[in-house]
Design brief:
This protein is an alpha+beta fold and 290 residues long. The chain has a domain at 5-107. 37% of the residues lie in helices and 20% in strands. The chain has 3 helices and 10 strands. Strands 1, 2, 3, 4, 5, 6, 7, 8, 9 and 10 form a 10-stranded antiparallel beta sheet that branches. Helix 1 (5-49) packs antiparallel against helix 2.
Length: 290
Amino acid sequence: MPFTAEVAAQQVQECLKSLHRLVCEIEAERNRTEHNIENVLKTQEKVAADENSAHYYEQKLRGLYKTGLADANQEEDLLRAALACINDIRAIRNERRIQARNAGNKETIGCGALMKMLLNSAQTLPLFVGKPGERAPPLCGAVPADGNYIAKSGDMVAALVRVSDKEENWILAEVVGWSISQNKYEVDDIDEEQKNRHVLSKRRVVPLPLMRANPETDESALFPKGSIVMALYPQTTCFYKAVVNKLPGLASDKYEVLFEDSTYPDGYSPPERVAQRYVIAIKEGKGRSS
């Protein structure tokens, strides 16, 4: 069946129905978990208050702990299923947008709306929540892509493009496709006022993160303080060289970076806050300072 607007809408509705059901199940599971926690606390009080019956209550506690662990695992499974539904909706909408673009129906977005869209894209980027001992995967936070990775159509990347005979800039771009025969990307400048399409080699394209890293559980997937990076300058669609000054403290926080800027006495701009999605490893010898 062709992937029409009607088919896409139907798939989104099915995902929304599944999401609603899962949210209800999560709420019910959470209520059960809270009830069990209350029983655990009451039983712990009885262990402390009645030494003669401590052994009995300790046995009861083991059973409550076992039940609580099973409840937590069930709630986790439901939450992951709900997040999968949300990601499915994002994928369906993105696929439909790409189809419209390829059909020549690309919507013109003003500068203000574009900045708002980029902010929303960074804020809603999926958060990696691994299981105990699981490491953050490639393209999560600061973890780079595998060497043979090819970004998909619709993915956002940093692209090094020539803007004059003597100058090249790293810009925010969207992948149109990958040519196997040419071994090159075709990308569109995200700034629609430029309306530029570029054909670039792989070394001139850096995929942006597909997931955020949680600073509280996966700090190793973030750039350390003092790292030299490329970061999207606020209210622009260009990446410039910067130094990480402060890491995000929470999953919703941004990096604090200092952009190289020769107009300031110390060579750096005042601190700017940039979302994880728009902070990437710099490629030495490429790009320019702000």
